[in-house]
Design a protein that fits this description.
The complex is a heterodimer of chains A (about 1000) and B (about 180).
Chain A: H1 7-15, H2 19-27, E1 34-35, E2 51-56, E3 65-71, E4 74-80, H3 93-96, H4 98-102, E5 112-114, E6 120-122, H5 125-138, E7 144-148, H6 154-165, E8 170-173, H7 180-190, E9 197-198, E10 205-209, H8 220-230, E11 233-234, E12 237-238, E13 240-244, H9 250-253, E14 257-259, H10 266-280, H11 293-298, H12 301-308, H13 312-324, E15 327-331, H14 341-354, E16 362-363, H15 375-386, E17 392-396, H16 410-414, E18 419-422, E19 436-437, E20 448-450, E21 456-460, H17 473-484, H18 486-490, H19 497-507, H20 519-529, E22 531-533, E23 564-570, H21 583-587, E24 601-603, H22 605-611, E25 617-622, E26 627-634, E27 642-647, E28 682-693, E29 713-715, H23 716-720, H24 722-730, H25 737-754, E30 766-771, H26 780-789, H27 796-800, E31 809-815, E32 824-830, E33 849-851, E34 857-859, H28 869-873, E35 879-881, E36 916-918, H29 923-935, H30 948-952, E37 958-962, H31 969-974, E38 979-980, E39 992-995, E40 997-999
Parallel strand pairs in A: 7-8, 7-17, 10-13, 10-15, 13-14, 17-18, 18-19, 23-27, 24-26, 29-40, 30-39
Antiparallel strand pairs in A: 2-3, 3-4, 5-6, 5-19, 9-16, 11-12, 20-21, 21-22, 23-28, 24-27, 25-26, 25-28, 30-37, 31-32, 33-34, 35-36, 38-39
Chain B: H1 2-17, E1 24-25, E2 28-29, H2 50-56, H3 61-64, H4 79-86, H5 94-105, E3 111-112, H6 125-130, H7 136-139, H8 156-165
Antiparallel strand pairs in B: 1-2
Classes of the chains: A alpha/beta (about 1000), B mainly alpha (about 180).
Chain lengths: ~1000, ~180
């Protein structure tokens, strides 16, 4: 009889088992009552004690450093590497979810080949090699092509070298977000095909032209941290950020002002601002602005106002503000990439140059280390395949069958290729058309390196044994070279990819600052740190001679009558769609719309009224290239006449969580490459209300605050005003006298109780301070909480019924936008407030909800009987009920199908059906650090305990600590005058203090 | 060491000759019961004698349960640890042969769990060991058990009685989270 194996029991078994045996235990039945020790214990692993490995996140090209927490040979949590200058210990939601890439239940578990019937069937690795060698023998030189994603570093070098060794030069790189417009603009204006370094930390004024720098653009975690300090309050002065885009993106939520010009006219607006700056202070500009002076003179504010639909006085004001402080203008976001996006970026370059920002907040370094990629390259490959010039195609790390417009015909062209080999570790759209599937290790199982930009040499190391019968592609290429033999084999001396990688680092040891130590020491030190970071010297940049001849056209695509402009923007959750197979991310509410598990199209209230559309109405969107039907979301943050759809859903493959979910916006986009070699993310569409309707799986409650003062904001003028600040500091909600008397009696009773047992003596009171000025709404904290606390994903239907389990959520409220006040967005991370006088506690009939001596509202899961009284009585709606048995492998609602269950944190109980659960400030982390401190005979230091949400926060908005210690960081933050408690008037005495969001509004 | 090995060899010869019933050479009592179902506690795949290792040889518990001082989990000894001694000693004992067989074949030993806490209880061994609580206070006189059995109830009331006696925390979230 097969016996049940519950989660913790399983982990116990795994806990004392070696890697291979654990994998076997994970897959097959095991005797639940046995404990299996290691044969030979691995070094530096103690059962029950976590080991951390430094590696590099490969979820997007930013290259954040990671520390992977490993328990008993299993990665259980991914955290940021505090030593990485890129992310400084923070990690976004996609980075957190990399763990679900590793443990994805739909990973390809071994090599597979397509049989005569067109089905994939398993094949031995050696047979696969033989097939490839045979096929390559029949192909000549350049007919062997290799397509990769953005892979700068040693792997990139190996692919080039390997291709050369087999006599081919046919290498293509396709990264969907390759910022072609930005690079083209830098080439045109400065003569440099480089993406510069942006210094958000020193920029006190940021002007973003449709650039989602807090979501996906270049390095969002780093930018979020630097922006929040550059934008913060220093000596009563605050930075200012103005966002210019037809759609208010999540990034624009952090803006002090949102300017929405006619779509496609952002470049002209930038020139208009530059015109005013140059006219106001011609002497401040660099000497060579004469090259652009005639150009700028043509763009006076009145002319620009006519083109952009932005008042001339606004343009003058923006220019004056921009010139007054260290500033930074940015362009080149994917969501603003129309066919004139290079002109927008060029105009922004000129604006930065005229304002003297180039060399200060915009620093050009050495040439990019990566092989340049562009959509044009993919179009060329497609043409080559169609022409029969490719007979063997290798594909690694890219999925063009999903993220290229269907009009390009990549899939049809792929069928013209005689033999296609995919190295994807998941069955994605592209792999499903391959002849041979040789799954690569997951990035967390690999040796590799990565150079996201000049000066950053990052290392990846395997954090655990591979789960499946996969092989690292580098090893496969070396093995193939050996099997081909002759001149091809002799080009490589390394026996495996790790050796190849080490050889590559050995030759660069001195360049990387490793002189004076042995290679082994240098290697070990680099691995420990996650890589080597150098600061490249910025170079002096001047305007290119040809800059005066540039033309600045506006996007013309959306002009026809009855047509709307569709904007396809990168999803902050799914990036280019590659992360759609992660259940955590599917369940993560989109930061803007709060919709989960599906696609939508954003329409403005005006457009919605015109077409008679309400939230959830099914809308058919038709472009010249295709049509999709998705539910509508009426969004006040989008310009009338513009509709927007995120990239990321609509997969036809990619495993159970992504497949057949929503629609892909790539079915609508124009496949013709733009002048700068990119893909236009704007297109003209018509929309039609199909008459269908579906309830959106939205995690949002009310979208307006209705005067409840939940997410409060103030202005910098008020922060400077001492009287107002004194009022805030001394302000507490008024409590009627009668109630006050009752409360006093209650307090006395509490005091009597606290003199007994556990409650006597000095205890900390744990608390949080959350600075809403810093919070960007990115939701990294939400996914971090899922990962730390074993929170189950409940699926689309349950979210629709309001049964999502997110212990921390980002509340998003719209304010204004009604014609009188401009639209702004208020954000608030809401988790259990750990009330001092908690309404949930007295109503629990079994004392499962109670207050701990150290000020937590604990929830004893094994005591809970599921009356849900506590949840009904909680004014913050932060208690979550297990309607189903998400932790039971035999239940239909099981949230952790193998091997996803290996991600579970062994320090946290998996809750069962009928149990209420909630945030308890990561009590397992508190107890863990208290245990550590007790063993060392000391007290827990301030800042030693970090909440999972706090740790992940890119903007460093969250502070945790002991509120009873007046010197703790959290006490100091909570004492700031703009601090307030949510629903203070209920007299719940929360332990969470929010600091009002400060807006740098224009006075007068 | 060779002397001990020879001595053990001799002892085991004697033991096998005199089954059943214990036999003593000096203060050494050799394993004799092959069928251990009559003993309290679950039957293990190998009849490992705590009474000999911890009792007669007075090996420290932490020698094998090496993580108890530093980790929530006490740690089961790896087969490697057993082989540290049994590479040399006890070769003719059929139970030791099983250990050697496991090591040679690379097939780990599947011990039957004796002390089991429900998954919603987190017990930090290291806090208790470092507070000078003797292992025996919860596990009983293991050094006298030929086959280990659960000595204490391990129920919450039993935990709390000790916590109250010692005036340490009785807060629920000390263990339940």
């Amino acid at each position: 009889m097969a016996k049940q194996m519950d989660r913790r029991r399983f982990l116990k078994v795994v806990g004392v088992t070696g890697g291979g045996a654990a994998a076997a235990a994970a897959c097959g039945p095991g005797d639940p009552t046995t404990l299996v020790p290691y044969l030979v214990p691995p070094e530096n692993q103690i059962p029950g004690v976590a080991t951390y490995y430094a590696t590099t996140c490969r979820e997007c090209p930013a290259g954040c450093g990671m520390h992977v927490r490993v328990r008993e040979g299993r990665a259980v949590k991914v955290e940021g590497n505090p030593d990485s200058p890129i992310n400084r210990g923070a990690l976004c939601a996609r980075g957190q979810a990399s763990l679900q890439g590793l443990y994805n239940p739909d990973r390809v578990r071994g090599p597979m080949a397509r049989n005569a019937a067109g089905q994939f069937e398993p094949i031995a690795w050696e047979d696969a090699y033989t097939r490839i060698v045979e096929r390559m023998g029949a192909a000549t030189g350049d007919q062997v092509a290799f397509l990769t994603g953005h892979a700068s570093g040693t792997f990139d070098q190996l692919v080039d070298q390997w291709l050369a060794a087999v006599g081919s030069q046919t290498r293509f790189v396709y990264e969907p977000f390759a910022y072609e417009a930005l690079r083209e603009a830098n080439r045109a204006v400065f003569g440099l095909d480089v993406v510069p370094e942006y210094q958000f930390a020193t920029a006190r004024y940021v002007l973003s032209f449709g650039t989602d720098f807090l979501e996906t653009w270049l390095s969002p975690v780093q930018f979020a941290r630097e922006f929040s300090s550059g934008h913060g309050i220093v000596d009563d002065q605050m930075g200012r950020y103005v966002h210019i885009e037809p759609r208010m993106s999540m990034t624009a939520f952090s803006a002090d002002e949102w300017v929405s010009p006619n779509p496609g006219t952002e470049g002209v607006l930038a020139l208009g601002i530059a015109n005013v700056i140059l006219a106001d202070a011609p002497d401040n500009a660099p000497f060579d602005v004469f090259r652009v002076r005639p150009l700028l003179e043509r763009h006076d504010p009145d002319m620009v106002a006519g083109v952009c639909g932005v008042p001339a006085e606004t343009i003058r004001r923006l220019a004056a503000e921009f010139a007054a402080v260290p500033s930074l203008a940015i362009a080149g976001g994917v969501g603003a990439q129309h066919d004139q996006a290079h002109a927008t970026a060029a105009a922004v370059n000129i604006l930065n140059y005229v304002a003297g920002n180039v060399g200060n907040t915009v620093q050009f370094g050495p040439d990019a280390p990566a092989t340049a990629s562009s959509y044009q390259g993919l179009a060329n490959l497609t043409q080559a395949m169609r022409d029969g010039r490719v007979s063997v195609l290798f594909m690694h790390g890219t999925n063009p069958a999903y993220n290229s417009p269907s009009g390009l015909g990549f899939v049809a062209a792929l069928d013209q290729v005689g033999f296609k080999v995919s190295f994807s570790s998941v069955m994605d759209e592209t792999s499903s058309h391959a002849d041979l599937l040789l799954p690569d290790h997951d990035p967390l199982e690999q040796w590799n390196d990565f150079e996201p930009r000049a000066g950053a040499f990052l290392l990846q190391q395997p954090v655990m044994q591979p789960l499946h019968d996969t092989r690292q592609t580098g090893d496969v290429l070396l093995a193939l070279a050996r099997q081909i033999g002759g001149g091809t084999a002799s080009r490589f001396t390394a026996q495996n990819y790790k050796e190849y990688l080490q050889d590559s680092w050995r030759t660069r040891q001195v360049q990387l600052g490793g002189q004076g130590s042995t290679f082994d020491d240098f290697w070990a030190a680099s691995l420990q740190a996650g890589g080597v970071h150098q600061t490249p010297r910025p170079r002096t940049v001047r305007l290119d001679r040809g800059v005066g001849q540039l033309t600045f056209d506006v996007w013309q695509g959306g002009g026809a009558a009855g047509e709307l402009t569709l904007v396809a923007y990168p999803s902050p959750v799914f990036y280019d769609g590659r992360a759609a197979d992660r259940a955590w991310l599917q369940e993560l509410p989109d930061p803007v719309t709060k919709i989960t598990w599906s696609s939508w199209v954003e329409v403005s209230p005006e457009t919605a009224e015109e077409y008679g559309i309400v939230d959830g109405d099914m809308v058919e969107i038709t472009s010249a290239d295709g049509s999709v039907t998705v539910p509508a979301y009426v969004y006040p943050g989008i310009r009338p006449g513009v509709v927007a759809m995120p990239i990321g859903q609509g997969h036809t493959e990619l495993g159970r969580y992504a497949k057949d979910r929503g629609a892909s916006v790539y079915d609508l986009l124009d496949s013709t490459p733009t002048a700068f070699g990119g893909l236009s993310h704007y297109c003209a569409v018509s929309i039609r209300h199909t008459g269908g309707h579906q309830v959106l799986a939205s995690a949002a409650g009310m979208s307006r605050q209705m005067g409840r003062g939940i997410a409060q904001s103030t202005t910098i003028a008020d922060v400077r005003n001492d009287e107002i600040q004194e009022f805030h500091a001394g302000h507490a909600a008024e409590i009627p006298e009668k109630i006050e008397r009752v409360l006093d009696e209650w307090q006395e009773a509490q005091d009597r109780e606290s003199a007994i047992g556990n409650y006597a003596g000095d205890h900390p009171r744990w608390g949080l301070a959350i600075d809403l000025t810093r919070c960007t709404g990115c939701s990294a904290c939400v996914t971090a909480c899922y990962a730390e606390n074993n929170i189950p994903t409940v699926g689309e239907e349950s979210v629709r019924r309001g049964r999502e389990m997110a212990w921390i959520r980002i509340e998003r409220y719209f304010e204004g936008g009604d014609g009188e006040e401009p639209l702004t967005v208020a954000l608030l991370p809401m988790m259990c407030q750990q009330c001092g006088r908690a309404p949930c506690e007295p109503v629990c009939p079994v004392f499962a909800a109670y207050r701990t001596p150290d000020g937590l509202n604990a929830q004893v899961y094994n005591r809970c009987v599921g009356t849900r009284y506590c949840s009904n009585n909680c004014p913050y709606k932060v208690r979550y009920f297990n309607w189903f048995d998400h932790g039971n492998a035999n239940d239909a609602a099981y949230a952790f199908p193998a091997p996803l269950h290996l991600q579970l944190n062994p320090d946290v109980t998996v809750r069962s059906k009928g149990v209420m659960e909630k945030c308890t400030f990561c009590v397992q982390r508190i107890r863990g650090k208290q245990n550590d401190a007790a063993l060392e005979g000391r007290d827990v230091a301030d800042g030693e305990i970090m909440m999972a949400c706090q740790q992940s926060c890119p903007a460093q908005a969250i502070t945790f600590g002991d509120l009873n210690d007046p010197s703790s960081a959290v006490s100091q933050s909570a004492a700031i005058a703009r601090g307030y408690k949510v629903l203070d008037g209920l007299n719940t005495d929360p332990s969470v203090t929010y600091l009002m969001r400060v807006r740098n509004t224009v006075e007068g | 060491m060779a002397v001990i090995a020879v001595a053990l060899y001799t002892v085991l010869q004697v033991v096998q000759a005199q089954q059943p019933g214990p036999s003593a050479v000096g203060d050494f009592v050799a394993p004799v019961d092959v069928d251990t179902t009559g003993l309290p506690g679950p039957v293990q795949p190998i009849f490992y004698r705590h009474d000999i290792h911890a009792g007669q040889y007075q090996m420290n518990c932490l020698y094998c349960h090496y993580a108890a001082e530093v980790s929530s989990s006490p740690g089961l000894p790896s087969v490697d640890t057993c082989m540290g001694c049994h590479l040399l000693v006890g070769g003719s004992n059929p139970e030791v042969a099983k250990v050697r067989e496991a090591f040679a074949s690379g097939k780990p030993i599947e011990w039957v769990e004796v002390h089991r806490l429900p998954p919603f209880v987190h017990f930090p061994h290291m806090r208790h060991v470092n507070a000078d609580i003797r292992c025996q206070e919860c596990h009983g006189q293991v050094e006298e058990m030929p086959q280990v059995y659960q000595w204490a109830s391990l129920k919450m009331g039993w935990c709390l009685s000790c916590h109250k006696q010692n005036n340490v925390t009785t807060d629920c979230t000390a263990c339940h989270y």
